[in-house]
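Hi L.,

As promised, Epoxyqueuosine reductase:
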Amino acid sequence: MPANPVIDDLDQLARDIKSWGAELGFDQIGITGTDLSDAETHLLNWLAAGRHGEMDYMARHGTKRSRPAALEPGTLRVISARLNYWPEAADADSVLQSPAQAFISRYALGRDYHKLLRKRLQQLARRIEQAIGPFGYRAFTDSAPVLEKALAEQAGLGWIGKHTNLIHKQTGSWFFLGELYTDLPLPVDAPGDNHCGTCRSCLDACPTGAIVGPYELDARLCISYLTIELHGPIPVELRPLLGNRIYGCDDCQLVCPWNRFAQLTAEDDFQPRHGLDTAGLIECFGWDEATFLDRTEGSAIRRIGHERWLRNIAVALGNAPTSAEVITALQARSDHSSELVREHVAWALSRHGDNNAQDAAR
């Protein structure tokens, strides 16, 4: 990072940064230091317990995630930003109660947030440069080993709830986070206070019991991990618990009382595209790879690829009520070139009483 510029009034600069952030469309800006020692202990214990599953990069990055100056030398402060994403979409609970429909996590219904948020953080940094001259910074949007929720909590953007997501008292938890690591010695904000109290709605609602205790998530059981991060077969014993969730899971957020105050996003890019908030399982299962790539262009969904898309939907179809249409759709993929897809299709068919599929799924 370049040498620190001389700034007469750091308090005013911090106020200006928050004002510029609001002008750029951020819903809140907070500032914190770099001491994440408590969060680091939690991270290391989580890794030692193997709760990161196959996300080897979590262990590979080690304490670089919890020590900002180790990731970006010279970092003194972190400017943390949040941006609401709750879209005007089909009612999530209704989709979850409609087993023929495909449930996709609300954050993934629109365009991929990474580029939008990162571009906006860069715009904020340039606005700061216009005011004070060159300074050291680096923008992150889930793009490097960053403990973004711990930083956001310390920056006063909310508190980490029992489901391990960040919650804001006025707007709930439906928002994205991004950071500017900087060498500016800005005044820091007071950390967020915890308001979970005795509530355990998220623990009770988790379909797979992935929230193994308050503030303790076992990713190996989490539907978001199983449908997005896991590359191989979904464990057989967990498949019936996925229901019709084909990309991510929002159950813990949907039941959170604080999300009664959720605010609709002002970003058009986060609105549903290609009817993904009302899409049917059979329709999505029929997409060939070219169609999948076309319908998921600019979407976070594309990262799982067509093979895992079919894997996930096969499980959901296995959980759907038996019908001729469901069986026909599955049989059409029973000789798919991917062994991963074939195995999940065979399992799904076995759920609908296909004796030949039962033998193949064993």
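The chain has 16 helices and ten strands.

Thanks again for sending the construct details.

K.
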